[in-house]
Amino acid sequence: MTYRAILLTTAFLAIGFAGGLPARAETPMPTTVTLTEVDPTVLATGYRASEILKADVYNDAGEKVGTIEDMIVTTSGTVPYAVVSVGGFLGMNAHHVVVAGSALELMGKKLTLHGATKESLKALPNFTFGS
Questions:
Q1: Is the full-model pTM beyond 0.85?
Q2: Contact indicator for 98, 72 with CB cutoff of 8 Å
Q3: CA distance between the termini of the chain
Q4: Which sign does the torsion angle of CA 37, 40, 46, 49 carry?
């Protein structure tokens, strides 16, 4: 390798390392992890998200009032929320509302939102998904 090649390689590496690596702040590493023991019999009475996504939602009269579009779990809370799609055709022009997951009850094989009607759900503010 020639002197010029060594000089160019050294300059290239110096420039790359000077401008190419982002500065990193020192963050303390967690030293402990808290685990929570969960009773499987309690979980057995819950809902699996894979089973309720796209599930129809009914009111007390057995009328279909919407469809579960998505589930949201916030980082600060323990209550999951359900995004219910109301109206529309094949997902177009649907009105999306958010209800607490605890408001949904499995009655027989139907997911029920007590006291809901299509009109009362459409009167709620439309929820738009963030990016």
A1: no
A2: yes
A3: 52
A4: positive
Asked whether the beta carbons of 101 and 80 are under 8 A apart, the reply is yes
pLDDT tens digit sequence for 71-126: 988 887 777 899 999 987 766 778 999 999 889 998 888 899 999 999 999 999 99
As a whole number of angstroms, the distance between CA 68 and CA 79 comes to 16
Contacts 24+ apart (CB under 8 A), 88-92: none
Query: What is the DSSP track for 82-116?
Result: EEEEES-BTTBT-EEEEEEGGGEEEETTEEEETT-
What would the two tokens of residue 9 be?
Answer: 């390689």
